[in-house]
Amino acid sequence: MLAFALKRLALALLVALTVSIISFSLLRLSGDLAQALAGPSATAADVEAVRKAYGLDQPLWVQYLAWARQALHGDLGTSFFFKEPVAAMIAARLPVTMTLGVSALLFALLVALPLGILAALKPNSWVDRLALTLSVVGQALPSFWFALMLMILFGLKLRWLPISGTASWKSFVMPAIALGYYGMPTFMRLTRAGMMEVLASDYIRTARAKGLRAPAILLKHALRNAIVPVVAVAAVQLGFFLGGSIVIESVFALHGVGYLGWESISRADFPVVQAIVLVLALFYIVLTLLADLLNAFLDPRIRVG
Amino acid sequence: MIGEPILEVEGLDVVIPLLAGTLRPVRDLAFAVARGETFCIVGESGCGKSLTALALMNLLPRRARRSARRLRFAGTDLARLDERRMADLRGDRIAMIFQEPMTALNPAYTIGNQLEEAMLRHRRVSRAEARDRAIFLLEKVGITAASSRLRQYPHQLSGGLRQRVMIAMALMCGPELIIADEPTTALDVTIQAQILHLLAALQREFRMAVILITHDLGIVARVADRVAVMYAGQIVETGAVADIFARPMHPYTQGLLRCIPVPGRTRRGAHLGSIPGLVPSLMGELAGCGFRNRCVYASPPCAAGGIGLVPLSPQRAYRCLLPPRECAANAAAAAAP
Fold first, then answer.
1. Which pLDDT does position B265 carry in this prediction?
2. Is residue A121 within 8 angstroms of chain B, CB to CB?
3. Domain that holds residue A277
């Protein structure tokens, strides 16, 4: 297990290094930085002065090392637009995005797992058809439109939930449903397919031949094996929820990282965009590592050589 | 059959409704198994052997339906038992060993967990007691360092070891009847012999009845007390093992026996027998004899009506229109060099 974990960790670090290089290059490739920093009215001499002051005349690898050292110390540069440290800006927005992402994931799993299990137990039954319909609709609906429909129904007509802001947990209910519903079909189909495959396997027949009761067969013997791929995808999906929540964050005016990213792109605030790409990519890497370790925990064939 | 029967089967049918018609893989089966005896069901692939085993355990695939005039186990009517009560019997008084040891164990749990579970389900014992029983049985089935094996996962064991674990698992509650469905087919020949000896020894020690399902007449000759030969979902011949091997009556049994080389009798380089043709479709009703298309003695009457079992003695019966004397003559002619 330790060897496996170390191998995965080394791999994750390698990916993180690659991502940091890409993220660093983003800013350098987006045009002449010195020109952008000096402003449109700067003379050629000003631009050269800025280039010297920021170290932009150094070779790229020197610049990268300097940037990487700063990033490791938590300094992700300064926003062109707000003239504030980017790290602080992201840190202030992160809790909103995390809350949204995690609750969207929980919603998706809470709907998908029971539905997938029931559908697998009775293929072609009404539960199965309902599950299939829900998942097709979930994949076909544009999330912004679904979010607007939720707002009209629960926010305006029924007045159960606030339609924007982050005042209380209630503000996160609709965004989490809108975001989570988009990821639900993947989990549902994986659970259904996994359960159907496992339920037809020889060791389930062995469990029945032992006289075990249905709950023990289903939860202990079947679900444990069917859930392995779902865990892996759930971790990746959480990464997607964290990074891909731009639309939902803007519809519900949630000031999270996604919203910040979208604003920064339209303001050409490259240091912020660069930092967000880096931070979200690191989340992805950590989550994937976590999924690998969880998988190893669930499947002894990975864990014990 | 000598002694009190533990299992009595009469008129056992399995039907599987399909879009194209109704599959009838097991037709009107009747047999009985005595306490402590080994009863072999032999036949080629697709003749309904495995479905018979699953039907006895009520573990048939979802779409398959079972019906029986009589299905009694130690005085209990299995045909009328609901799934709850049947599950109480399974793994406790009737246990089953499957063909594929590689896939029959759950990859996610240790050997120990899966062994103990079989006992914890049926007996009021602590986990420690169940573990002691598991260690005792693993040693019985010839696994060394049993207590450390308990912590291993199925993928860490070879096929032969896994089948030994499966046998130990079947023995956890001390069953009165074990149904073994091709328990050695997936194993190396040397391991096959070991597993068969093991089963026979355990059977004597614990006085269990064993229903052994196999396509291998060599196995039948070594371990069986009595045999039923199945063909196209029916029993075509049944009797004591020595009697069947010495005087096979049904043309199919005679064909099967011709397929085995006998050291010292079969000439080197001589052609081994084979039975031409294929098993008939098991769709719908069978008109006449199921074997007639592959039978060298077939005549027009073989195609008409159902053909019943002809009893020769309380122990012995065969399903053929040929009179006993002619069957015996055919067998003698075929055996002549």
1. 67
2. no
3. 93-303
